[in-house]
Amino acid sequence: MSRGIKFALAAALIVVCAVPAAAYLKLGTRVGNRTVTLSWRQFPIRYFVTNRDVDGVTAQQFRTAIERAFANWHAVPNTTTSSQFVGFTQAQPVSGDGATVLGFQNRPELDRTLAATNFFIDTTTGEIVESDIFFNSAFTWSTAEAGIAGRFDVASIAQHEIGHLLGLSHSALGETELRAGGRRVLGAEAVMFPIAFSAGDLNDRTLKPDDIAGISDIYGNATFQRQTGSISGKVTKNGRGVLGAHVVAFNPASGKLIGGFSLSDDGSFVIAGLEPGPQVLRVEPLDDGDISSFFDETMDIDVDFKVGFYDQVVIVPRGGGARNIEIKVASK
Amino acid sequence: MSRRTRHSTLVTCFALGAVAMLLVPTSAAAQARRPPGARRPARPAPHAGSWEIGGGFLWQGGFDLGDRDAELTRNPATGTGPYDLFTSASSLGAGIGVQGRIAGYVSRNLAIEGGARITFPTLDIHLSGDVESARDLTATETLTQYVFDGSLVWHFAPFHRGRAVPYVAGGAGYIRDLHEGSALIETGAEYHALAGLKWWLSSRPRRLGIRGEAGVSIRDGGFDFREGRRTVPVASASLIYLF
């Protein structure tokens, strides 16, 4: 089989396959009858930066912001990722050239896309072999330490896109409101929430517990496995599984929020990377973003149910899982 | 009390102690001279070498675990402060349980006691104020809390014809808190100070009685939402047997 047939292109804006057994969402691909997580197998991830200045950001400033974002992901305890800046390049951040490139491109036609991540993957193993991130220079950007009002912060947006580059999909841990011109975020607790805060905001420079659980789920070592636990079960309505329900685990001791989804027709969900101890569960329909930001549009996502809590405290064991939780929801 | 007087009292105590020890071989010698079939005169119970066992019911006070909001980071363009998804208020309720104890008397007044307590408090987490109007709800879980402890028990002079014996006790123990299904075990140390009354139902050397006590239990570890020590009230009532 030729390499060209084995490899496939995927864009992070459209989730290829949502991988079960994940907090938030991990990117995945179908191999036969199973879905495998997209992940890097070779470290450090060697990347180039496009040698192009844009209004307000030089290539060097851009590189520094990118390195900062990579470093935050690599600093997550008990994970094993690393990256290496190889050099500046004239190449564009497009897939298929064998090089992982991050840089600006002017894409005025994408008037609601700040940045996007593409992959070149081995569809037989799920290994990411190349990933490119373009930042849309049709918007105005900044790398200022304190940010600049009206300009999007490169480090914040890079942190989100590098989450995709590492294999994470979007988190639904956020609330939005519909306004003329689209959705506006009211609040979010994940860098991987699909809609950015307003221009000038720097909050996404800091990873949230949901992001940390996500990256740890993909690249966590044995210590992570020993020190955290998971919750699994299903969401049902009138005795039938609910697909695409957003389940959030809340630790009432620490205040940490980590989300997951029911990812199969029987309503099964798994939330991993949880602190041992009591957790409460809240379930809601996926109504704070376009469904296509999370799932393949062919999936029949159920959003017709009321928000609710699970009526028991769920105890997460250290290094194990709380299983067979059934959360019953009612139609709206 | 003057320094001289206190010294005199101490000398007196030591002297009484020596007499008490001398009485033991004297008693043995007397037994050798006792006519066949004659019963040995009973010493007043309890005495050094007496044992006491007991079991009964226990109440342990609960405590507030605090409030915690499920906070999202607010988009600064929409206001200030966190954006609350919902609010939680947690508490560990009072627990009813059982206990068993065994004590050995080292003197008429002092006993060394060991025991185990099991209580079943309920963890309540009240969820309210949901931003999308989820119905308020209290999620619950029942814990099983074990305490294995040891105490020194000092008995004061009895009253009411010797049937009522007030006492104080203090000691330390090991906490082992099990969440439902033994999914998680949390351990710690426990210290307690108690005061109570034993009421003997007869004056025979071997006799039944009841015991009631109350005090405080200081928990250091075990299940909690925070580090540090937590003081809770405890009370118990037991049936006891002296032999």
Largest sheet of chain A: 6 strands, mixed
Uncertain segments of chain B are 1-32
First CA to last CA of chain B: what distance? 39 Å
Shape of chain A: globular
Fraction of residues of chain B in helices?
10-25%
- Average pLDDT confidence of chain B is 86
Strand content of chain A: 35-45%
> How much β-strand is present in the residues of chain B?
over 45%
Short description:
The complex is a heterodimer of chains A (332) and B (243). Chain A is an alpha+beta fold and 332 residues long.
Could you describe the 3D structure shown?
The complex is a heterodimer of chains A (about 325) and B (about 240). Chain A is about 15% helix and about 35% strand. Chain A has about 325 residues and is of the alpha+beta class. In chain A, strand 16 (about 245-250) and strand 17 (about 255-260) form a beta hairpin. In chain A, helix 2 (about 60-75) packs across helix 3. By secondary structure, chain B is mainly beta. Helix content of chain B is about 10%, strand content about 55%. Chain B has one helix at about 5-30; strands at about 50-60, 65-75, 85-90, 95-105, 110-120, 120-130, 135-140, 145-155, 165-180, 185-200, 205-220, 230-240. In chain B, a hairpin with an 8-residue loop joins strand 2 and strand 3. Chain B is elongated. The model of chain B is unreliable at about 1-30 (pLDDT under 50).
